[in-house]
Amino acid sequence: MSEQKTETILLAHGSGGRLTSGLIDRLLLPRFNNPRLAPLADAAVVDLKEASWAFTTDAYVIKPLFFPGGDIGKLAVCGTINDLAVMGAAPMYLSCGLIMEEGLTMDTLERVVCSMGQTARLAGVEVVTGDTKVVGRGEADGLFIHMSGLGMVKEGISLGQEKIRVGDKVLINGTIGDHGIAVLSAREKLHFETAIQSDAAPLHSLIAGMLEVSDQIKIMRDPTRGGLATTLNELVRGMNFGLTLEEEALPVSKEILTLCRLIGFDPLYVANEGKVVVIAAREDADLLLKTMRSHPQGRESRIIGEVTSGPAGRVLLHTATGGKRLVDTLAADQLPRIC
Amino acid sequence: MSEQKTETILLAHGSGGRLTSGLIDRLLLPRFNNPRLAPLADAAVVDLKEASWAFTTDAYVIKPLFFPGGDIGKLAVCGTINDLAVMGAAPMYLSCGLIMEEGLTMDTLERVVCSMGQTARLAGVEVVTGDTKVVGRGEADGLFIHMSGLGMVKEGISLGQEKIRVGDKVLINGTIGDHGIAVLSAREKLHFETAIQSDAAPLHSLIAGMLEVSDQIKIMRDPTRGGLATTLNELVRGMNFGLTLEEEALPVSKEILTLCRLIGFDPLYVANEGKVVVIAAREDADLLLKTMRSHPQGRESRIIGEVTSGPAGRVLLHTATGGKRLVDTLAADQLPRIC
């Protein structure tokens, strides 16, 4: 009986020895090729100009590794880029660490690494340093990625909660809930009639355009885990102002809305991976909206609410039916392992 | 019946919601407290002077989490610091990401985080950004830490394989094999008569002192996973020179030597976490040795070998009995999950 042998990750791939270097030379280096990574030293040396730099890190444990619209590799690069971009930084250098479970197929790893390389290349960022570790079967779930990033904050850019004023507008660059529901559909092998795709995308070009036209952006965040509701609550927590959202203005696709009702989720709490929420001075809101809509990542941008004097520290929703309800932070997530 | 309830990590601690912020506010912030971390934004903003910066990342998956001489938290901080230090950089900023398995006890997490905070403080580095993720029971093994680091490379410091010349000396700052054997003893619950401790320690102060007295250091590496043999092989691989070690000069404690013989390990392949191997010009070797020995992390420093014209790309050992043997890279590690 002949059988095709599937190449998998062995514990020895994490030994630091011959198999480790083989993995790095054959699989990783070609995808991330750049002069700073090539020496494979203990750290990459990068030349940083005199400036403020944003430094971020995230672990990616999403389940499953592949989902409509992306995979853990694309997600890691986009997530890291976006964490830098919302700080007003131009993303430049990434690090990539892999924790692999023994038995992970080489094919899966290769697809993820290709996706990471391609996403980074398209976004104009470089993976300059990395690490690989292997743990035994049952000691991890396939593949975890951790990625850190460095981005330069342009002179004159200064963002922060303390800049927020009553009357400021809240904007978002498109529909909410797509990532979470796409991952859920892949995880539970749900077959929806309509194809729901994760919104995973790098937002640094959209955000750079916005920072170019307005110096009245107060703060930006990417509403990932916990969704828009959690992100907005973080922005008002402990502050002497509140925030009101207009339900009718919230961009949610019909498919997401229907599915959320079906499974009992609130799209306000569902994760996004290609969205930025912006608080900006009222007078610049329309200009920013126009700028955002002219960008491929912002076609469906909307003004969704504003900063209010009260209730301080809370997020209120003006419902479509004319009521008001408090949008609180959830104690637990609706969907674990969403990013 | 009364029962003491042990607080453990729940999936909800990874939700990004209320439990996540509780964990960060109560457990993490107090340990890493500094003005760059405090805003808890998506990235830390750090001011980097015009200079070359070293940027490194590592995943820590060591098993067990606690071992004689350290724990995964201390290991992560020391390992990251050392990866920067061997690049000739002064470590400054760290990021910390945690992947926690549901059910990890809060007490364990707290001990690890305290240890990280203390090691960082003593070493004069700051944890400025971080991330927490939780995966289900059986989807990880207790706790994995990933840490990235940034360190400034002083003007005029230039290290690299291409600077190595035949006749250069190889130095190390003390005994080899301690970390690996200490972890093995904890993992297998071996009870040795003598207390073997991991050598986990930050080496940036030792290395800074060496760089101060000599501009003839060609390259430095920390011989962690795969041990001294693997590190030295990486340094000569593909080069037109070789390297010869003197077995009699190799610092190995009597306890490690005995135990290694007993279990069939070669200390040359056992991981270290507080050692640096240095290649330096012959004329500066004695000065460097003296400088290293005057530092607490270098009391047992030795000159252990030299760079030779051949066999090119290989590491040779002059044995104590007058023979020669090739010190190759192992295909697989003797001890998985050692760091």
CATH superfamily of the largest domain in chain A: PurM-like C-terminal domain
**Residues in helices of chain A, as a percent range:** 25-40%
* Helix/sheet category of chain A: alpha+beta
State the total count of DSSP E strands of chain A.
Answer: 14
Largest interface: A-B, 83 and 83 residues
Q: Which shape of chain A, going by the Cα principal axes?
A: globular
The CATH architecture assignment of the largest domain in chain A turns out to be Alpha-Beta Complex
Distance, first to last CA of chain A = 42 Å
Q: How does the major sheet of chain A shape up?
A: 7 strands, mixed
Total domain units of chain A: 2
Could you walk me through the main structural features you see in this protein, from its secondary elements to its overall organization?
Chains A, B: InterPro entries: HypE (IPR011854), PurM-like_C_dom (IPR010918), PurM-like_C_sf (IPR036676), PurM-like_N (IPR016188), PurM-like_N_sf (IPR036921). Chains A, B: Belongs to the HypE family. 2 copies of one chain form a homodimer. With 339 residues, chain A is of the alpha+beta class. Chain A folds into 2 domains: 11-153, 60s Ribosomal Protein L30, Chain: A; 161-326, Phosphoribosyl-aminoimidazole Synthetase, Chain A, domain 2, CATH 3.90.650. Helices cover 28% and strands 25% of the residues of chain A. Chain A is built from 8 helices and 14 strands. Chain A has helices spanning 18-32, 72-85, 106-123, 178-187, 204-213, 227-236, 254-263, 285-293, and strands at 44-48, 51-60, 66-67, 70-71, 89-101, 126-135, 143-153, 169-172, 217-221, 242-246, 277-280, 302-308, 315-318, 324-326. In chain A, the strands form 3 sheets. In chain A, strands 9-11-8-12-10-13-14 form a 7-stranded mixed β-sheet. The first copy, chain A, has a 4-stranded mixed β-sheet with strand order 2-7-5-6. In chain A, helix 3 links the parallel strand 5 and strand 6 (126-135). In chain A, helix 1 (18-32) packs parallel to helix 3 (106-123) and helix 5 runs antiparallel to helix 8. Chain A starts with 17 loop residues before the first helix and ends in a 13-residue tail after the last strand. The model of chain A has no long low-confidence stretch (mean pLDDT 91). At the A-B interface, helix 1, strand 1, strand 2, helix 2 and strand 5 of A face helix 1, strand 1, strand 2, helix 2 and strand 5 of B.
